[in-house]
Specification:
heterodimer, A: 252 residues, alpha/beta, six-stranded mixed beta sheet, 10 helices, 25% strand, B: 378 residues, mainly alpha
Chain lengths: 252, 378
């Protein structure tokens, strides 16, 4: 039992639309899991459930020994448990979602200071170290609007890392980027993976998935249709729907 | 050649482009010329400006005791310094503009003791203080951080200087300006609280805030001010409090509802992704609102909030119903006096000019502030 994220029988609906139907997924420490699937299949919703950005109606999600409250419990107002989980789970969004009114460095130091109550000096030192790691130490005092998309996404990764997360969630991190900037972001992610970070990645970059993933999960119509090593999924998919999805995305 | 052509081209484009334009020009230009000629003729030849001169003290400070006027000068100097710092550190980096703004403020103060021989010295003092403060805040950006604190301290100072005469004797333009400042500053935090309350997840808070905002917005200001003026003595029998403070309470409560609506529209303009990003970092709702949502929301509503300051300034004359002598009321009181009763045009024209000048400074500053904020983060 060395799993850090454990999802059992997860059910989630937006009003009358059932998005997730009984998803089961265990993610081990240090594992890199890539989630693939057609758009609208529920893959983004799934990883947004892991840090409580989406509520779910049925099932259990346990992250690092802490169970997330389901919708009923959240209506009563259980914010404490949610923030506890989120402290240890970093998230990177498709649209970066950097804070436009703060400098790059302030973006990174805000949460450590407010949530972990770090001193400004320590937070800034750590922030500069992280910026160096993503290759942006020269841009610390700029505002996000002055950076390119690829640079912004690297800042977003550094911002998430500043909280020392146990798990990193990536929600289509390269989908909003111009093609020439995709690589710089993937390089940073690849480095994270080799350093042993636990990662859950929703992406359409199949080549990247094959290269870094320990396990690939194919989501279809709100369920995990097939999961396995990249070789199993990409080379010998068992399910017909997996095959047709892959032939559609790998064609070009 | 090119230069001499320019005015002709301009005229052609703006005045005589089509037949309709030419006709309009033919009607309006002579009309404007005639109007400005008669105004000038009256202003220079016929108008008796000494009426304004003699009554300046009443216009500027109302029934404020003459022996305390030097204290008003010190207050004016403090104001000049604060405005200079603000324009230097926060709004614009133009010396010309800050000189204009501070000299205007000092001019107001100058008028307060125009009959006084040493007024010119005081006036120049205020001007110098303002310009020095401006250049200091330009050179030392750190001052900017303490702007809010300086305003608070400065304001306490001004109050301490003016208070000995008794709050009910503060009047004229001095009172209008001070009242506007305090009412604007107080209505913002209350408005922000109401705006958040309206979005609260607790139904009770939400209903109360919505009810308050909607009620205030459907009542006339004059009614709110009068009601609160009548009601406050009932709340603290024996000590009714000065009229000015009771009026201030009415204005603050009233305009907070409008501020709340502006702020609410600003809060709605913050993308959901911003909140999600902050949530995913484990931040609590308090910090999310304080550090992520509110700063971005306020940035959007700065123009509306400045408009609100203007609204307050322009509605201050309504305070006459609770017996307070503001700038406009002071002018009317002068006209009631048989000695200067015949100078209606002079007095009103003077007040017109002062109102226009102050409003122009505020709008100009706001536009620069807006441009600076937009430029900062793109």
């Amino acid at each position: 039992m060395n799993e850090i994220v454990s999802i059992r029988n997860l059910n989630k609906a937006f009003g009358p639309v059932q998005v997730l139907r009984g998803v089961d997924l265990q993610i081990g420490r240090g594992e890199v899991v890539v989630v693939i699937g057609a758009s609208g299949s529920g893959k983004s919703t799934l990883i947004r459930c892991i840090n409580g950005l989406e509520m779910f109606q049925k099932g259990r999600i346990v992250v690092d020994g802490c169970e997330l409250p389901c919708e009923e419990e959240r209506e009563i107002g259980d914010d404490k448990r949610l923030t506890d989980v989120r402290k240890g789970v970093g998230m990177v969004f498709q649209q970066f979602n950097l804070f436009p009114h703060k400098t790059v460095l302030e973006n990174i130091t805000l949460a450590p200071m407010r949530v972990r109550h770090k001193k400004q000096k320590d937070a800034e030192e750590n922030g500069m170290r992280l910026l160096k790691r993503v290759g942006l130490q020269d841009h610390a005092l700029k505002f996000p609007g002055q950076l390119s998309g690829g640079q912004q996404q690297r800042v977003a990764i550094a911002r998430a890392l500043a909280m020392d997360p146990h798990v990193m969630l990536f929600d289509e991190p390269t989908s909003a980027l111009d093609p020439e900037m995709v690589r710089e972001v993937l390089d940073v992610m690849r480095e994270l993976a080799t350093e042993g970070m636990t990662m859950v990645i929703v992406t359409h970059e199949m080549g990247f998935a094959r290269e870094v993933a320990n396990r690939v999960v194919f989501i279809d119509r709100g369920t995990v249709l097939e999961a396995g090593t990249p070789e199993e999924i990409f080379d010998n998919p068992r399910e017909e729907r997996t095959r047709s999805f892959l032939s559609r995305v790998l064609k070009h | 050649m090119k230069n001499s052509n320019k005015p002709l081209k301009w005229m052609r484009k703006n005045l005589l482009a089509t037949i309709g334009d030419s006709l309009l020009t033919l009607v309006i230009v002579p009309l404007l010329l005639w109007a400005s000629y008669s105004l000038l003729h009256w202003g220079i030849g016929i108008a008796k400006w000494h009426a304004v001169e003699e009554n300046l003290r009443v216009l500027m400070v109302g029934t404020f005791p003459a022996e305390l006027v030097p204290q008003v000068w010190i207050a004016a100097a403090i104001m000049s310094a604060l405005v200079g710092i603000t324009f230097g550190g926060l709004v614009v980096a133009s010396v010309v503009f800050s000189t204009a703004a501070t000299s205007l403020l000092a001019l107001i103060a100058l008028c307060a003791t125009y009959s006084n021989e040493s007024a010119i010295t005081y006036f120049c003092g205020c001007l110098a203080v303002g310009v020095i403060a401006h250049s200091v805040s330009l050179k030392v950006p750190k001052v900017k951080k303490y702007a809010v604190l300086l305003w608070c301290v400065g304001f306490i100072g001004i109050s301490a200087l003016v208070a000995p005469a008794g709050w009910d004797r503060v009047g004229g333009l001095m009172m209008s300006v001070l009242f506007t400042l305090v009412a604007s500053v107080l209505s913002v935090p209350l408005g922000v609280a109401l705006a958040f309350g309206r979005r609260s997840k607790y139904a009770g808070v939400q209903v109360i805030c919505t009810f308050y905002i909607e009620v205030m917005r459907s009542l006339p200001l004059i009614l709110v001010v009068y009601c609160i003026w009548v009601v406050t003595p009932l709340l603290s029998p024996g000590y009714p409090g000065p009229d000015l403070v009771r009026g201030l309470l009415g204005f603050t409560l009233f305009f907070a509802a409008y501020v709340a609506e502006y702020v609410r529209s600003g809060l709605q303009s913050v993308p959901k992704g911003q909140i999600e990003a902050a949530q995913s970092l484990g931040m609590t709702p308090y910090y999310i609102n304080r550090d992520v949502v509110l700063p971005q929301a306020l940035r959007v509503v700065v123009p509306a909030l400045v408009g609100n300051v203007l609204d307050i300034f322009n509605t201050v004359p309504l305070l006459f119903i609770i017996g307070i002598t503001d700038f406009l009321r002071a002018g009317q009181m002068i006209l009631v006096n048989p000695q200067s009763g015949g100078y209606t045009y002079e007095i009103y024209l003077f007040m017109f000019a002062v109102y226009l000048a102050i409003a122009s400074v505020i709008t100009f500053g706001a536009r620069r502030l807006e441009a600076r904020m937009a430029g900062d983060h793109r």
